[in-house]
Amino acid sequence: MKLLIAFVFIILLIALVGTLMVTRKTDEKYSETAKKNTANLTLIYVAVIFLSTIALGVYISFSG
């Protein structure tokens, strides 16, 4: 259980660092690419939620 909690915190830390790295860059053409960025971000969130749900199911099935 402690290993899984540590794994979650590592993922959160990587996500935070990645987000901060992306926000430092300026993009003059942001308004032109906003739709593509939003679509990509939505796809990433869907994939992460899907994989997290699977991981939770696997964890629950093996812990019981």
TrEMBL record:
<keyword id="KW-0472">Membrane</keyword>
<keyword id="KW-0812">Transmembrane</keyword>
<protein>
    <recommendedName>
        <fullName>BshB3 potential contributor to bacillithiol synthesis</fullName>
    </recommendedName>
</protein>
<keyword id="KW-1133">Transmembrane helix</keyword>
<feature type="transmembrane region" description="Helical">
    <location>
        <begin position="43"/>
        <end position="62"/>
    </location>
</feature>
